[in-house]
Amino acid sequence: MSFDVPDACTLPTAERPLRLAEFDDLFATAVRQVEPIDATHARLHLTGPAGLADRVRDLAARETECCSFFTFTTTEEPATDGEAVVLDIEVPDAHADVLASLARRASTVSAGAMS
Q1: pLDDT on residue 60
Q2: pLDDT tens track for 40-51
């Protein structure tokens, strides 16, 4: 499963596999649903142990530093155990393909982890 890094990304090439591994770990351990809103907006529903919201915010902030076209909005929700987070990811029209690729990867990795 590949993920095409957009030309607009400023993360050094050597660090890209590490960042992708961080996203894959988050997708595998916390993503419960990937909800496509439209071509430029996806919503990920995540649950996990205490500290999940901080983990999501940290990763989103670091990703925004190198791929400034992403807009991440993190919303904490009530959870009976641990934490529940909704992560809205938005991009301009020019980067809809990047968002689609990221959403597909989140769906695939989280589905593989849950089976």
Answers
A1: 93
A2: 999 999 999 999
Per-residue model confidence (pLDDT) at position 115: 47
- What total number of domains does the chain contain? 1
Report the candidate in 13, 23, 48, 50 with the shortest Cα–Cα distance to residue 107.
Answer: 23
How far lies 21's CA from each of 11, 15, 17, 30, in Å?
14, 10, 6, 14
The number of residues in the chain equals 115
Residues contacting residue 105 through CB under 8 Å, at least 6 positions apart:
1, 3, 23, 24, 27
67: number of CA atoms within 13 Å, CB side? 22
Contact assessment for residue 29 and residue 113, using Cβ atoms and an 8 Å cutoff: yes
CATH of the domain at 63: 3.30.1360
